[in-house]
Design goal:
mainly alpha; about 60 residues; about 90% helix; extended; 3 helices
């Protein structure tokens, strides 16, 4: 169980790091866009991302 959590955390850090390495300008623009968004819209985006991630993990477990 702990190894799966660490594996998942490692994947998240890898993907986040690659985004910063490959597209730093995109990250800056995204952060500025997030700063201008109202909190409710940021929460909605967060919920959608969490649900999408959960669905991907569920599909992986089923397949």
């Amino acid at each position: 169980m702990i190894s799966a959590v660490l594996y998942g955390l490692g994947l998240v850090l890898l993907i986040e790091g690659l985004v910063y390495v490959l597209a730093p300008h995109f990250v800056e623009k995204m952060l500025l866009s997030l700063k201008e968004m109202p909190n409710e819209q940021r929460r909605l985006v967060g919920v959608c991302m969490a649900l999408g991630g959960s669905l991907i993990l569920l599909l992986i477990k089923i397949i």
